[in-house]
Description:
Layout: H1 3-39, H2 41-66, H3 74-102, H4 108-127
Amino acid sequence: MSNEAGDRRAVSSGALVLRVLLAQAGLTAILAAIFLSIEGPVSGYSALLGGLTAVVPNAFLALRLSLPRRNPGAAALMRAAYIGELGKVMLTAIMFGAIFIGVRPLGAGALFTGFVGAQLATFAGFLKRR
């Protein structure tokens, strides 16, 4: 495999990750608008917060994996992936905790719909990968 082919794959993977994050953010905005128009502002911002609880940690993981490393080997990539995934889980838990503690009133159904919807956009994006 030539370096050019590897570089092309890295660019296409980065573009795919960016498209998935944008799809998550877009779906979050759409769901928030739907909840806002049908059920009111509490459900609207609850759906938005739920979607952001998926998008922000996923963006952290993507950033963690895309940052250049001193050692470009497989072990360094696996370490970055483990740290990134741990950070993603911790960010998700912290965000849910902060939302449940600090946001009143809160529409739990809309919150979880926004979260699950954004997560499903992740799976849909990777299923489209060639």
